[in-house]
Amino acid sequence: MLLSYLPIVLFVLLAAGFALATLFLSSVLGPRRPSKDKLSPYECGIDPVGSARERFSVKFYLVAMLFIVFDIEIVFLYPWAVVLNSLKLFGLVEMIFFLGILLVGLLYVWKKGGLEWTS
Amino acid sequence: MTEARTMTINMGPQHPSTHGVLRLVLELDGEIVVRCTPHIGYLHTGMEKIAESKRYQQVIPITDRMDYLAPLSNNLAYVLAVEKLLGIEIPPRARVIRVMLTELTRIGSHLVWLGTHAIDIGAMSVFLYAFREREQILDIYEQVAGARMMSSYFRVGGLFADLPEGFEKTVRSFVTTFPDRLAEYEDLLTRNPIWIQRTKGVGVIKPEDAIDLGLSGPNLRACGVPWDIRKSNPYSGYEQYTFEASKGSHGDVYDRYLCRIFEMRQSVTIVRQALERLPDGPIAVQDPKLTPPPKPMVKQSMEALIHHFLLWSEGFRAPAGEVYQSIESPRGEYGVYLVSDGSNKPYRVHFRTPSFVNLQSLPRMVEGRLVADLVAIIGSIDIVLGEVDR
Amino acid sequence: MDKLKEAEPEEHVTVRTLRERLPDAVLSTKSFRNEITILVRAGDIVRACRYLKEDPDLRYEFLSDLTAVDRLGEHPRFDLVYHLYSLQFKRRIRLKVQVEEGEMAPSVTSVWSTANWHEREVFDMFGIGCEGHPDLRRILMPEGWEGHPLRKDYPVQASPKWWEEGGKSD
Amino acid sequence: MEWLVFAPLAAVALATAVSVIVLRNPIYCALSLVGTFFALSGLYLLLQAEFIAVVQVIIYAGAIMVLFLFVIMLLDVGHEPPAWLRRDRPKLVLGIVLISLLLLELAVAIGSRVSQGIQGPYTSELVNAIGNTQLVGRLLFTDFLIPFEITSIILLVAIVGAMVLAER
Amino acid sequence: MVPDPAFFVIMVAKIVVVFGLMLLSVAYLTWLERKVIGDIQVRLGPMRVGPHGLLQPIADAIKLMFKEDIVPQAADRWIYLLAPTLALTPAFISFAVIPFGDRIRLFGRTIDLVITDVNIGLLYVFAVASLGIYGIVLGGWASNNKYALLGGLRSAAQMISYELSLGLSVVGVVMLSESLSLVQIVNAQSTAWFIVLQPIGFLIFLICAIAETNRAPFDLPEAETELVAGFHVEYSSMKFAMYFMAEYANMITVAAMATTLFLGGWRGPFLPPVVWFLVKLFLLIFLFIWIRATLPRFRYDQLMRFGWKVLLPVALANIMITAAFVAMR
Does the CB of B1 have a partner CB in chain D at under 8 Å? Predict the structure, then answer.
């Protein structure tokens, strides 16, 4: 079984090697004429005010946390889907419970306005 | 989770969707615009100052460069103001040609607006389609004036030259094909759900606010205020044409879009009517003190030569006084305030440009909305920075 | 050339009503090419504007334009020119206020928001300040600019001193 | 043969795990942790646990670390080492003691071969015959049904918790 | 158990050929896109370099190679360099498990036209896809540019949101084929393509695929007109090109996945399997390009709302309905 993963490893190495080689080549081939304006961050021709790395909207954390929860849910769905044919109705009922409980969570976030992005 | 701070970011002057060198300083909370401060003047060329040292006739090419998408509208407003100051009437043929060409200009300007507005919202194909049609309008400019953009075709007292041969055919073919093309653009946008989502209810401005902020043109009409100078205070004989002023009701980006599309259709009908009634006759007032005599005459008649020389070296003098003339340019009320001290140069010229005034409403429309809306709203106000900064 | 019949300014409804309601405000009236100009006393301009805007028979609710003229050599030196428009009655009227160099003119931003940028432009180009303006600073010229370009004593070919010194707009 | 795969993976896992603690820039730490997850995923693969291996990448590297990155980036946690590392002696001592205890425990466990555990009914041949995912599914939805359903409750709590945190 | 050396030779040959073809298709996809969009927009597209601009991608590559490689001063140098690599690598490696043809006989050997068939092929692709986010987020952050940061964050939020529905959309396929191996999934479609049995799943997959690859109308992360170029605004030279290549490689991958999962993979009458696979791939890519030329762009909040409030519930409902059918069978 491990042998079937060997091509993947080789493929990854090839792709990563290609990427690194490209990086290297362009840094060797390209000219280097740095200047102050060239090295400063682009902000439409005006010197930027403050740093780009500042505290950001809390919405992004919420998205990431919800994503984790639902990603875990999806991961549970695959083994279930693979064997559903043999689990029959039993499996269906199980999953209805599982998804039902999570749907409650989704509805909760929905009603609380967690899925609104403008406010 | 602590309180998120706002981030100050410059949008423009080097930005693809500020329609020129407009600089907006945005205060963002996430993606929501908390405050928007426009900074203008990056294209300030001091046109009003330059005009004070030019003879009346020489100011015309300067006006082209203000709203460079509608050069003939600028020409028209200026020459009308000078003619008002002089107290002269131009011959009917010149008037009809002026109307026809300013309406084509309106279509051309709205086409650029449509293309850029659409590409701002991501509908890139419309941009190229709109420019294809605008190209035909530039061809028409080229036919009459020799220049594709800065045509300076309207002159004080009439026109630069009579229409060339084949002109009517070109215009006729344009007005027959254009409505179908317009319908095609509408197919891509008007009922497109994404387009509607991006524009409906965005950048809403109430009619009383719009008046308070001095909005004019399609921006004002989209709020439901049916003010069109062509209707309310007709100039150049607009009262003789049948057309409708556009009218919206919600004052949002979508209504402004509909208004301009509607105006393009109306302009086509006006151009058609102008083609129908185009009379024969002179294209300028027959006053050698104001308009140059025909070139062959200059070569034969001493008097004509003197007039020609005087006009080119001294220009003409206008009576002392002041006038204000405004027209309905594609962007709204385009006014020219002219003060004369009786000499051959304007003592003071002021251009009341619609973009300058309309841009002022931007912060009121965008604050509290998303950056993406900002882009849609800028596009919908349809500003030209050459006109904002002058 | 000058053969057109002029209207009598004092017969114009706007002038009549304004004279009736604010007799002290109107200094003089004039008509040229059938355009009425009312010279208003500087201190009364805000009152006059508000009245013209709100009176149901006049309703000049739209401020078309606001600019200035430098009459160098005359006193007072500057004219501030207001172009008002009535959407309902389709009428235009021109108001004028005269200020001397160094004087401030009252701001009409409280009557029309649109006056904001216009007054900034007047300040930028002529150096006439408007009292009560919420945000009076240069608008077209860079913030560090010296002089006011549209004044008659500002040379057309001004020395580009500002650029030579490598000035930067904020 | 197995050692050939195991040794480098274990080395990578250890090295990246150490650099999570040692590196100063929190973003580098987070990326090192991603490296650890990959090495762990490889180890799972070595144990014939394909499903777990790939889930390790999806959940840990693909989801949880994204949240970490968000937090680090958006809060712009400083690049300086935390203050306790420099000043707070008692905590440092406590940490060393705890780590020593852990190591001791590990050593005892390895020495007494407790860790070998009991041979389960599912040999690797059997797993390969049925299919790893299929087997996980079959067991999860029959024998371990209750834990599975409880998971949904835990996830629900997580959703509510996230929402409450976001609202504050 | 050590397999014979021929196994390794074939394996390496397959890897090299597939990788080389991927690179070539990525390059020519840029040409194809410009040509197709040009045609839609009544213009010609590239015409100068070679006949019909056929050498344009090569010229572009050479030009980019020789461009100055700028690293902004305020940037985090190492992450700034690492990010494009992290974007490009995952974009290519998904293809390792996608079957692009039936087994063929060559030199007396049977060769499977897939680099490797693993039991969890489908999950492998998703795992790789979930890593694509790193290149974008890190690139946006490392640039220390506000536009880049905004673009990177948007992109991250968008990608994770649509990853959920993407994952859910194929659960129906898994139920019907009872396997996570892509080879098995193609085999399960010998009677009927899953697009027939899972039309809603296909639709959701397609929408999410477009969103995952950051293409119009979901091209917010780079939304030129708002964020100038989004997360890669500071990138120049080949580093910029790597993001570009990653986008197009991702496009090929998702089209190949859609083909494999819903359109019967390489299956089809008359023509050789590989040709069928390529035809389906091409049609999907053409669709992506067509959509880009036609539709305006979504707004960020609309996009998120659509992902969470429309796609997610619909995908869940689709699963339950499919499950009911499978369980009652």
Answer: yes
* Whole-angstrom distance, CA of residue B86 vs CA of residue C160: 37
pLDDT tens-digit series, residues B258-307: 999 999 999 999 999 999 888 888 888 888 788 888 778 888 888 888 88
What is the ipTM for the molecules in this complex?
0.82
Distance of CA C107 to the CA centre of its chain: 10
CA dihedral B75, B76, B78, B79 (to 10 degrees): 100
Q: What is the pLDDT of residues E198-233, one digit of tens each?
A: 899 999 999 999 988 888 787 766 665 566 667 787
DSSP secondary-structure letter at E79? H
Q: Which of E97, E167, E327 sits opposite A89 (nearest CB)?
A: E327
Which residues of B are less than 8 Å from D165 in CB distance? 1
Query: E255 is written with which tokens?
Result: 């089209």
Does the distance separating the beta carbons of B132 and E301 come in below 8 Å? no
Q: Hey, how many other C-beta atoms are within 10 angstroms of the C-beta on C144? A: 12
Q: Domain ranges for chain E, please list them.
A: 5-328
CATH number, span A2-112: 1.20.58
Q: Helix, strand, or coil here: B289?
A: coil
By three-state DSSP, how is residue C81 classified? strand
Q: Strands B32-39 and B23-29: what pairing?
A: antiparallel
What's the CATH architecture for B56-389? Orthogonal Bundle (1.10)
List of residues 6+ apart from E247 with CB closer than 8 A: E91, E213, E214, E215
Domain tally for chain D? Answer: 3
Q: Can you tell me the mean pLDDT for B175-188? A: 89
- Chain D residues within an 8 Å CB radius of B1: 165-166, 168
> For the whole model, what pTM was predicted?
0.85
Between chains, do A75 and D163 touch, taking CB under 8 Å as contact?
A: no
What is each CA distance from C140 to B46, B357, B385, B390, C161, in whole angstroms? 9, 13, 12, 9, 17
Report how far residue E83's alpha carbon sits from residue E97's, in angstroms, rounded to the nearest whole number.
24
- Whether the pLDDT of residue C166 is over 70: the answer is no
Token pair 């990056």: residue: B42
Between the alpha carbon of residue E247 and those of residues E91, E149, E165, E237, E256, the distances in Å are 8, 19, 20, 16, 14
Do residues D158 and D110 both lie within one domain?
no
Considering CB atoms only, which of A14, A16, A31 is closest to E68? A31
Query: Does the pLDDT value for residue E315 go beyond 70?
Result: yes
* Tens of pLDDT, residues A67-111: 888 888 888 888 888 888 887 788 888 888 888 888 888 888 888
The domain limits of chain C are 9-164
> What's the CATH number of domain C9-164, 3.40.50.12640, 3.30.460.80, 3.65.10.10, 2.40.40.20?
3.30.460.80
- DSSP E strand boundaries for chain E: 104-106, 109-111
How many contacts does A have with E, using Cβ atoms within 8 A? 215
